[in-house]
Design goal:
Elements: H1 4-8, H2 18-25, H3 27-30, H4 33-59, H5 72-82, H6 91-103, H7 107-142, H8 151-159
Length: 178
Amino acid sequence: MTSTSENNQKKGRPTPKRKEAQAATKISSLAPASSKAEKKRAKEAARAARISQRAAYLRGDESALPVRDRGPEKKFVRNYIDARRSIGEYFLPVIGFVLVLSLIPIGAFAVAGIVIMYSVLLFSVVDGFFLSRKIKAEVAKRFPDKSTKGLGLYGWLRSTQMRRMRAPKPQVSAGEKF
């Protein structure tokens, strides 16, 4: 440990001004042109890697999927959901229609819009409940050694997304048997 007398000694140079200290720490502004080109190449390479990773994710490549979407049972659930139509995937367009109805200055249209919105929401929740039970039963039948925990909610949430907005993209078309 240093003694008090050493701490009291002057350092032999003036304290740099804030601007000087910040300028000294800015490496990128002092870097030669070759390293700027290298940085640009590295940035482009990282961008290309992100684009290819996203494309692989949207295709459904197992290596590119996050942990929540990996595994054969999750793939089965995605295909099971994508092979059917559900009321939940039409909820957002219905909300848009209700918004248009609410702009009409007649009370009956506003009430009708609210009734339509809550009806679709109720049907979506009921459909999700029964869909969750079907998914768990099918997964238990096809993958007897795997847990069904969370798969029902996973499937229901996917069924509430508009088909073209789903990620990873649907691998089967609606109505297709797999």
